Predict the 3D structure of the following.
Amino acid sequence: MPAERRRSPRVPSDRACKLFHAPSLRFLPGRTRNQSADGFLIDIPPTNTLHPGDPLRFALDDHPLLAHDALAPARIVRCEYTPHRLTLAITLEPIA
């Protein structure tokens, strides 16, 4: 069995979320699959503009209008592409 890479345990989560991808200036809808103390695994519609290391803003809310301070800073750790979705592992970053 592979060694555990996570710093904290993950728990199942199925919640609507919203991402703002700063490099492309795009908002993306998503759905969480699981969460931990420092990050989330999220499914979004397929796109080829996201890459590991990219900065994001993240909110557990799918409201069409969100204030900038409602979005937490995050970073993409891993991207897994399939024909029907893109799964992102993100880590939350300290709020400056």
Residues 81 and 87 are 6 Å apart (CA to CA). DSSP finds no helices and seven strands in the chain. The radius of gyration is 13 Å.
